Amino acid sequence: MSVIVVSVAIGLLLFAINVAKGKPVFAIFGLLGGVLGIIGAVRLAKPDSWWARRYYDDEQLRLAARRFPENAEHLQWPCPECGETFTGGRALARHRELAHGVSHEVASTGSSGECPVCGVLFETKEALAAHVARFHPDHATV
């Protein structure tokens, strides 16, 4: 009986990981206990998935965007000064600082550094604005 419980728990875990990574077919195989569920869980997530937004840094997002280009069009962060595009906010911020001398204004502690939609905290007002534009476009005027 404990083997069945462990198998079901592993299948549910693989299902959840694959859903979070934007891979529904691999999620079904994970639920059924197949090897494809494990493969989907350990490989890169799709760049527009919850997993990528939550856990990936700029380099991992770039790799995911190359692996899944059909899911990465909206992940481009254009430089407002020159128009060059980047696949991550940190890369854009570094470019703006090095190429254009634009430093980041640090947000004061409190609500100005917190996303009003999801509550994520940010060190700079620019990072907060970029987050709202990227993940909450309906609230872009915030």
Overall description:
The protein has 142 residues and is mostly helical. The chain has 2 domains: 1-43, no CATH class; 70-139, 2-Layer Sandwich (Double Stranded RNA Binding Domain), CATH 3.30.160. It has helices spanning 2-20, 24-31, 35-42, 50-55, 58-67, 89-100, 125-135, and strands at residues 77-78, 85-86. A two-stranded antiparallel sheet has the order 1-2. Strand 1 and strand 2 form a beta hairpin. Helix 1 (2-20) packs antiparallel against helix 2 and helix 2 packs across helix 3 (35-42). It is elongated. The model is unreliable at 105-111 (pLDDT under 50).
Per-chain topology:
Blueprint: H1 2-20, H2 24-31, H3 35-42, H4 50-55, H5 58-67, E1 77-78, E2 85-86, H6 89-100, H7 125-135
What radius of gyration results from the CA coordinates? 19 Å
Quaternary structure: single chain
Classify the fold: give the CATH topology of the largest domain: Double Stranded RNA Binding Domain
CATH classification class of the largest domain: Alpha Beta
Contiguous runs where pLDDT drops below 50 for at least 5 residues: 105-111
SSE-based structural type: mainly alpha
The CA-CA distance between the termini, in Å, is 53 Å
Helix coverage percent: 40-55%
Shape: elongated
Q: How many strand segments?
A: 2
CATH architecture of the largest domain: 2-Layer Sandwich
Q: Provide the β-strand percentage band.
A: under 5%
The largest beta-sheet arranges its strands as 1-2
The tally of domains stands at 2
Overall pLDDT metric: 77
Largest sheet: 2 strands, antiparallel
> How many H/I helices?
7
Return the string of H and E elements.
HHHHHEEHH
